[in-house]
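Contributing new records

If you add data, match the layout below exactly. Sequence lines come first and carry their own label; structure lines follow with theirs. Keep one chain per record. Anything else will be rejected by the validation script.
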Amino acid sequence: MIFLCPACIVRRPCLSACPSGAIYREERVGAILVEPSICIGCHSCSLACPFGIPRFGEDGKMQKCRLCVERIEAGLEPACVRTCPTNALKFGSINQLAGQVEISAVTKLARAIGYKD
């Protein structure tokens, strides 16, 4: 399971707004993707997205992150997560990520009050 934006999981406003059907949900991974050859460049997706995710290339077609679907299917992290120099990007299920945050918060608190490993 991938942690995706709740708007993309539940409502998918850009998908509903696309008159050409260029935006679709990739079933195996759950990512919202775009097929540029079908995009008509109308910007309806951009207007519908509350987060400003859709961007348009020089050709006028919508483009967005593909979430490295091929890497995820191969059991790997998305490239941005793997290469982030500050380790600020995370990838995993909501439960995995929540556990990481809890551990991180507890570790920081312990260090702040002087606990030594």
